[in-house]
Amino acid sequence: MSATIVAHSSSWSRALVAISPYTFSAIGIAVSIGVSVLGAAWGIYITGSSLIGAAIKAPRITSKNLISVIFCEAVAIYGVIVAIILQTKLESVPTANIYQPESLRAGYAIFASGLIVGFANLVCGLCVGIIGSSCALSDAQNSSLFVKILVIEIFGSALGLFGVIVGIIMSAQATWPTKV
Description:
- This protein is mainly α.
- It has one domain: Four Helix Bundle (Hemerythrin (Met), subunit A) (Up-down Bundle), CATH 1.20.120.610.
- It is built from 7 helices and no strands.
- Helix 3 runs parallel beside helix 6.
């Protein structure tokens, strides 16, 4: 029955079913960690450059505004944590069962989870970096604004946690066929 369905489907669906679910899993894990680190690096770049520039006018802001850099770094840690969780979801499946629907679903679930976490953390890193930049610049002008903008930065950082939660929920679908 499934051979009939595959024979009549498009070339894209045949290609996706022919790729090993382990390949999709590996790509998902790599995207989770790689894109999260990219988001953290981008946020640190944005925050750091503004922090250095604003510190010329007000050197007092340097140490307390490093918290913005730490928030950006947390985004990379989120990606590492999820990559470790996704790695633990991988199980060995006999070659005869590798292309069963359950195996394909597990591979796609890990892939989708890694994609969601990676791109959520990319956006989170940018968000935290831009807010951290604003925090440094405004703190250099008026030190009473630091705590107010830091609260906004904490809300921006929560976006990465939402991605982690959604990724963990999605990875719960990764159940491989039992060994026979």
